[in-house]
């Protein structure tokens, strides 16, 4: 019989797949002897079975019954008993943390009868009715699917009648009336009475948690975080402890280090006389955790001691939810805490210094995505700014954009290309799409552990929360700031998630210190370097020491190449030579296309040569001693020519006026002749070299002359000549023959031969499948994964983004665009075939990649595993690729040591 329910004493932190993160960590803490209220966990397997069958597995009820009986025995109370009732919480807890996305029901077991028993047992009538109203409210919304706003409004009305805005001002009689109002809402909206059988409450609450796995916001969150949809959630049933039992009770969240900066210290929020959902929902503004020391010194001390125990045990920053019930501390949850990118780097290095982890593990704990976030720009400190207010610095970064007041508007405006700041009183899980679309999130309520803060940090979105001075009127779509300033939807605000500052209008942004460090303007050992810069320096250094993959840059100009070198590039993996002849110099190619005689063609090529040579000279100088891969002309010819329609109109008008130029007529004829329906699959790449004799030869000559020129100045040249879009070895061989002849000729002229490598891009499935033969003519392969993706899938890379990709992502054909992150299964298979067959032909075949995927973290891991020699990516992504290449090597070590 499958075991669907585990008591806390039966589990451990290694059982997250089955017990979910929360259940596994609760079990672990029980094992550590920490004060966790007793309870049990219903497994993710039970949830999966329920979701598949549409009903609980038949064994579940009996197993829950048996564990409930144990729990009742341990507590000496019966669930929902009229005199001294046991109450339980029913909490979701999936394998991966999905904060606030799924459901929780507290105080299960309260009924019209047991509420009186609870009041007597606790000697506190207000508390009992407060707990009951919370149950009806949560149960109504979560289990019965009633609009939560109806309950909120009824509660607001009760407060208004008392002329207060604070729920603590409601007494027992008020709350009793609120319960009546809530039950009436349940009756009216669901057509049934609020259930008075505690067992039924429990069964329905568990079912609602199972169902919440597929709630739209949970589905959305999983897509964003790339969490598989089939895992299901576990459900934790835990004996209630009460933070709402008066001023000596309360609830809070603690972090063992600052999750924003990584600094050690006491960090968190506390709310006296409250239950957990009040903290997360930002219902009342929380107090800093340090104030707990004054309120309850003993609990505070015990909490700090437990924080230390947990951090040493998990060897990482932990976050903890706790409740104090009349002076007794209970730990309700812990997990390795979410943190900002900066905190991830800083904490990892601190833990190394504290001897808790080694550098390999520190490297595994940071990611290229996080490093990318740290390279975001910040607000210019010197720029004039108009400070509107200061809130809490919940998630760092600098964001400027137009203000919107709801998720839908954020999505619409972002789609139209605007930067958006989503402003809300407080966010809830339904705002997720808007938060994803926005550049930044600003709320007027809630602390650093509010929903807005937690979710924004997880996504790397800038967030300022709890900006209390702002009055956010979501309905009127405006906010009021101190001094009578009004900001309407569509006006611009700038928010600084590192300081909590909110500015009116747009503020200019500047480079981050991490970028300045990579550029060499901050010395990591100097006084300008802060803890973050030092941590980045240390971990990227370790990555460099560990990685097997080299990292090169895609750079077209000397300037790009210099920047790339500062960022750590070990060469140029792709110089797209066409950039020289697009734009203003288009005419040079036009002349080549229009040439009718060999002499005309030679004259056109002679004009192109010095342009090409000058550029390559700069690249060689910038990369002195490092390899420079220059790709011969690749794009469809028509890209160099005028637009057909525009030219036809121009010629038509000129003809009418009798002023038509012969050159234009010839040009129009050429443009018509070269017009293609699918230019990406037309006359481009190596095909150009074959159709336009002398073109590739001119480029190779320019490279050879550039080499001879800079060598005279002592520059060490390592040239690599790359032929694009090859499908058959015969195409490549023609280009290689031409290049070899030119190199020999120029070598003779210069008196020194240039031993450039000649290789090819692998961009077509046919090239990958015949790589063994192609390698006979190639000294290196560079995988052009942009084209290889488009040609493998048959997706036009220029059209897909605005077309059906959104739908494909939504219905899960892929979790991320294959143009962003390599399709390891399909495109990756072609790469593996080409690697194996290419090396079989030529053992020293050099292998690299220069498509966009070269700077994508997941793809870098694939390229490492596939055994490539290097990745090449845009200069700004070089540090990311270096870090991920190091992580790939370290992960491989770990795997092989297991
Ligand atoms: C590629 O196809 O991956 C590539 C690098 O070439 P381009 O993007 O210039 O076509
Ligand atoms: Mg290409």
Q: How would you characterize the overall build of this protein?
A:
This is Pyruvate, phosphate dikinase. With 898 residues, the chain is an alpha/beta fold. The chain folds into four domains: 5-239, ATP-grasp fold, A domain (Dna Ligase, domain 1, 2-Layer Sandwich), CATH 3.30.1490.20; 250-339, D-amino Acid Aminotransferase, Chain A, domain 1 (2-Layer Sandwich); 376-510, Glucose Oxidase, domain 1 (3-Layer(bba) Sandwich); 547-580 and 614-634 and 701-897, Alpha-Beta Barrel (TIM Barrel), CATH 3.20.20.60. Helix content is 46%, strand content 18%. The chain contains 35 helices and 33 strands. The strands form seven sheets. It has an eight-stranded mixed sheet with strand order 14-24-23-16-17-18-19-15. An eight-stranded parallel β-barrel has the order 26-27-28-29-30-31-32-33, surrounded by seven helices. The site of magnesium ion has 5 residues, from helix 31.
């Amino acid at each position: 019989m499958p075991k669907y329910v585990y008591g806390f004493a039966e589990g451990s932190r290694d059982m997250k797949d089955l017990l979910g993160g929360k259940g596994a960590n609760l079990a672990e803490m029980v094992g550590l002897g920490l004060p966790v209220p007793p309870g049990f966990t219903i497994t993710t397997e039970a949830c999966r079975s329920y979701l598949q069958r549409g009903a609980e597995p038949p064994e579940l009820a009996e197993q829950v019954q048996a564990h409930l009986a144990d729990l009742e025995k341990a507590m000496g109370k019966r669930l929902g008993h009229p005199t001294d009732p046991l109450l339980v919480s029913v909490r979701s807890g999936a394998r991966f943390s999905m904060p606030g996305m799924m459901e929780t029901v507290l105080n299960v077991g309260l009924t019209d009868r047991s509420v009186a028993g609870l009041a007597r047992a606790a000697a506190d009538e207000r508390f009992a009715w407060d707990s009951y109203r919370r149950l009806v409210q949560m149960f109504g919304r979560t289990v019965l699917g009633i609009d939560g706003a109806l309950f909120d409004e009824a509660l607001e009305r009760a407060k208004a009648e008392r002329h207060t805005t604070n729920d603590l001002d409601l007494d027992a009689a008020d709350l009793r009336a609120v319960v009546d109002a809530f039950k009436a809402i349940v009756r009216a909206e669901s057509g049934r009475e609020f259930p008075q059988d505690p067992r039924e409450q429990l069964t329905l609450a568990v079912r609602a948690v199972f169902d919440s796995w597929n709630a739209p916001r949970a589905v959305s969150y999983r897509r964003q975080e790339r969490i598989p949809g089939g895992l299901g959630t576990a459900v934790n049933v835990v004996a209630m402890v009460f933070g709402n039992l008066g001023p000596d009770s309360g609830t809070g969240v603690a972090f063992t280090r600052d999750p924003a900066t990584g600094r050690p210290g006491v960090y968190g929020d506390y709310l006296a006389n409250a239950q957990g959902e009040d903290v997360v929902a930002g219902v009342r503004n929380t107090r800093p955790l340090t104030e707990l020391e004054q309120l309850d010194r003993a609990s505070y001390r015990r909490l700090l001691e437990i924080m230390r125990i947990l951090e040493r045990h998990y060897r990482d920053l932990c976050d903890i939810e706790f409740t104090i019930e009349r002076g007794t501390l209970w730990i309700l949850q812990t997990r390795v805490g979410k943190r900002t990118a900066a905190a991830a780097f800083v904490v990892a290095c601190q833990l190394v210094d504290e001897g808790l982890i080694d550098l390999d593990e520190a490297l595994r704990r940071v990611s290229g995505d996080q490093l990318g976030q740290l390279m975001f720009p910040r607000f210019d400190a010197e720029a004039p700014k108009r400070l509107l207010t200061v809130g809490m610095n919940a998630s760092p970064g600098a964001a400027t954009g137009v203000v919107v007041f709801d998720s839908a508007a954020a999505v619409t405006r972002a789609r139209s290309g605007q930067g958006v700041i989503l402003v809300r009183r407080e966010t809830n899980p339904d705002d997720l799409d808007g938060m994803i679309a926005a550049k930044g999130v600003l709320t007027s309520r809630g602390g650093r552990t509010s929903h807005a803060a937690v979710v924004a940090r997880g996504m790397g979105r800038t967030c300022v929360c709890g900006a209390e001075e702002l009055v956010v009127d979501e309905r009127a779509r405006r906010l009021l700031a101190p001094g009578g300033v009004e900001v309407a939807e569509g006006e611009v605000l700038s928010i600084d998630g590192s300081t909590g500052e909110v500015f009116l209008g747009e503020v200019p942004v500047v480079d981050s210190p991490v970028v300045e460090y990579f550029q060499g303007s901050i010395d990591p050992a100097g006084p300008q370097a802060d803890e973050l810069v030092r941590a980045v320096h240390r971990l990227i250094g370790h990555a460099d020491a560990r990685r097997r993959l080299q990292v090169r840059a895609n750079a077209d100009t000397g300037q790009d190449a210099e920047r790339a070198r500062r960022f750590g590039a070990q060469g140029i993996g792709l110089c797209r030579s066409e950039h020289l002849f697009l734009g203003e110099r288009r005419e040079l190619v036009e002349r080549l296309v229009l040439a009718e005689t060999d002499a005309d063609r030679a004259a056109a090529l002679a004009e192109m040569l010095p342009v090409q040579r000058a550029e390559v000279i700069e690249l060689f100088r910038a990369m002195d001693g490092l390899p420079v891969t220059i790709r011969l002309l690749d794009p469809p010819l028509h890209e160099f020519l005028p637009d057909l329609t525009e030219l036809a109109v121009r010629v038509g008008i000129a003809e009418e006026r009798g002023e038509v130029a012969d050159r234009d007529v010839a040009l129009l004829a050429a443009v018509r002749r070269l017009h293609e329906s699918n230019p990406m699959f037309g006359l481009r790449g190596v095909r150009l070299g074959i159709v336009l004799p002398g073109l590739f030869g001119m480029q190779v000559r320019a490279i050879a002359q550039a080499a001879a020129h800079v060598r005279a100045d002592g520059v060490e040249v390592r040239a690599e000549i790359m032929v694009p879009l090859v499908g058959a070895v015969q195409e490549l061989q023609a280009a290689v023959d031409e290049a070899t002849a030119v190199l020999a000729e120029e070598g003779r002229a210069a008196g020194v031969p240039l031993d450039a490598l000649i290789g090819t891009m692998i961009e077509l499935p046919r090239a990958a499948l015949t790589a063994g033969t192609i390698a006979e003519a190639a000294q290196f392969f560079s995988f052009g994964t942009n084209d290889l993706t488009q040609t493998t899938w048959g997706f036009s890379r220029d059209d897909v983004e605005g077309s059906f990709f959104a739908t494909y992502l939504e219905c899960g054909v892929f979790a991320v665009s294959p143009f962003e992150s390599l399709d390891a299964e399909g495109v990756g298979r072609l790469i593996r075939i080409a690697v194996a067959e290419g090396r079989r032909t030529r053992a020293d075949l050099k292998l690299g990649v220069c498509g966009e995927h070269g700077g994508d973290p997941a793809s870098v891991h694939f390229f490492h595993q596939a055994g490539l020699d290097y990745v090449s990516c845009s200069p700004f992504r070089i540090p990311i690729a270096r870090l991920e290449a190091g992580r790939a090597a370290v992960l491989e070590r770990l795997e092989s040591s297991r």
